[in-house]
Please model this.
Amino acid sequence: MKTVRKRRERQKDPLILVGYGLSMSVPKGRLIIQDGTTHFPSEPAQHVYFKGSLDLPPRIVIIDGAGSITLDAIDWLADQSIQLIRIKYDGSNTTVMSPTGYAADPEKVAWQLRARESETLKVEFASPLTVQKLEAARVTLQDFLPASASRNRAIETISACLDFIRGGQADTVQKLRGQEGKAAYWYWRAWQHLDIKWTAAKRYPIPDEWRTFTARSSLNSSKKEPNRNASHPVNAMLNYAYTALLTQTKIKAIADGYDPMIGVMHDQREKHKDNTPSFALDLMEPMRPVVDRVVLKLIAEETFSGADFDLQSDGVVRLNPEFIRVLS
Model:
């Protein structure tokens, strides 16, 4: 969502470009950007900028796609201190052209570094995200999970946790995580009543434990390792959906000028040596229960086959590439 800008205020939102046939050039001193084509037929937008204009974006982000950029355009962007960032569709292989050689906004990165060391800033940052996450989880329980005593208990617990946080009682990271942990326990307990339908297993036999769902590590992934090596098809589907969400969130964090690797609540410097997009993990928390609905809807509507999943020699369950298309 774009921010509302005052008349004499500089543009704060990045310009996002996608598609094929992108181009940037500088005829007669103006920067002209032709957006790419994502489908046919379509009419890609054209953006025209003059030097010193308040409409100039702080950064231009090209997400995948293909096209051309003239050397004059690169010089023009450098002269106007506009970052040019190129990101692959999966969030990898970020290329940056900027006066600093760094994609992030220095002020935003400075805040990230302060926040990860400050209890007060952590709580201020995480409290609204946790509230949004619990609100979304409550909707997921009410609208996408079958009625059960566990579901009722989960809804009651989440409502109590929300009251606790909104009342200002979760004034430390430990208290905030404690509320999230209580909500997570009952949230995943409610998933145990899912009706998972399977086709006849003669051709593609499945383990008995696949017929019911028993556990997910936690909604509160800041306290436990993510369930990366799923041993159940439902967890494999969740892992895939969360990975897609993480990619989208990482791209948005970069586009907004943050360093996706500098987490506030997901501070994994020691554990993963900063190889994890920890800040993207922070930002995606409210959307986890929303993504869960995609998986729950699929479980409610589909009859699965053992061929949809690949049980590897170490017991890890992966999605069959053809089934990924259904989930996507």
Summary: DSSP finds ten helices and eight strands in the chain. The chain has two domains: 15-103, 112-327. The CA atoms of residues 206 and 290 lie 29 Å apart. Residues 218-224 have pLDDT under 50 and may be disordered.
